[in-house]
């Protein structure tokens, strides 16, 4: 569901339970502040201006996916959510207290176990592109377990669809050429959906090819 800007979406949220709208509003505002803080710190860490990710680069309305994974009698037979990389800049993930998230690192799936009240920050694919490959959009998936159901809420911070994406100028040079061309996020996103979240296939048309 779309959660931010609150004024644009509050009218569409369910009326029941009666405290839901206020709870979602608090959550949405809190997550927006958190995302601004995190993106400011990441920008600084990359040597960019603290406001680099403000505006179009994080301008898409914030949407939350509420994922519910029922217990699965034989988890070896199915995944809760298959391997993918989130498309945007960062994803803020609340994963409750049941394990299930795994990230792919050096061809190995590694569990990211929940920490009480903590929010996981995953880099999305646009972060990799804007940082010209310095940061990596993380491939991840969710597994099921036989005993407990699991719920997670993933909130996506993404560029506006008409926003222009390109490696930040300060992060490439004569020696360190840009890996990606400039493109509109809309073009990427269409490709992402068509390729079911596959990073390499989604970015293929936007790669700078060496002659
Ligand atoms: O359930 C999880 O931990 C992961 C959810 C996720 O990756 C997503 O909604 O994009
Ligand atoms: Fe994801």
From TrEMBL:
InterPro entries: IPNS-like_FE2OG_OXY, IPNS-like_sf, Oxoglu/Fe-dep_dioxygenase_dom, Plant_2OG-oxidoreductases
GO molecular function: metal ion binding; oxidoreductase activity
Keywords, sorted A to Z: Iron, Metal-binding, Oxidoreductase
Matching Gene3D superfamilies: B-lactam Antibiotic, Isopenicillin N Synthase, Chain (2.60.120.330)
Fe2OG dioxygenase domain residues: 60-159
Pfam family, any one: 2OG-FeII_Oxy
Protein family according to the UniProt entry: Belongs to the iron/ascorbate-dependent oxidoreductase family.
Name this polypeptide is given: Fe2OG dioxygenase domain-containing protein
Organism the protein comes from: Vanilla planifolia (Vanilla)
